[in-house]
Amino acid sequence: MSSLDTMYQELIMDHARHPHGKNLARAFDGESFQVNPTCGDRIQLRVRLDGVPGELVLAEVTWDGQGCSISQAAASMMKDLVEGRPLEEVAALMDNFNQLMHSRGKGIDEAVADSLEDAISLEGVSRYPMRVKCALLGWMALKDAAAKATAGDSSPAHIPEGI
């Protein structure tokens, strides 16, 4: 294993053990609950927006969930990457991460990779299609929660007990 691979593995494990944003906020504008049916990973994610229509910023991302190291680390890295950014930038980052996850380990454009900051450490996951869903779980929740927030729908879907 290369020293870069080792560093990436350590970064993923650090985010999984000490996840950022894993504590649901009471005040939120949009919420989503997502489950990966292939492995049982689950996430409940809340977003709070700030600004005016057309210039909205993702002011806060909080979440709670259970799952593998990849899903937990990916949600933690995502929170760090998107929080405080305009929704337009968040959408571009979501596209970039999706591109990374579907690269099958063949690499992506350097500018796209740079935009992902710590989340680039999940590049190795792209070689394992069953694990890609784990890494994308938080991003799918973010997309749904942001859509609900911009539509003014903050009512959550039914969320099972024990998440």
Give a summary of the structure in a few sentences:
It is built from five helices and three strands. With 163 residues, it is α+β, with helices and mostly antiparallel strands.
Overview of this protein structure:
This protein has helices at residues 3-17, 69-82, 87-101, 110-115, 129-151, and strands spanning 30-35, 42-50, 57-66. The protein is α+β, with helices and mostly antiparallel strands. The protein has a single domain, classed as Sufe protein. Chain: A, CATH 3.90.1010.10. A three-stranded antiparallel β-sheet has the order 1-2-3, covered by helices on one side.
- The CATH topology turns out to be Sufe protein. Chain: A
Uncertain runs are 157-163
The domain count comes to 1
Helix content: 40-55%
CA gyration radius, whole angstroms: 15 Å
Q: What structural class should be given to the helix and strand makeup?
A: alpha+beta
Give me the strand/helix succession: HEEEHHHH
List the helices and strands and how they pair.
Layout: H1 3-17, E1 30-35, E2 42-50, E3 57-66, H2 69-82, H3 87-101, H4 110-115, H5 129-151
Helix pairs in contact: 1-2, 2-5, 3-5
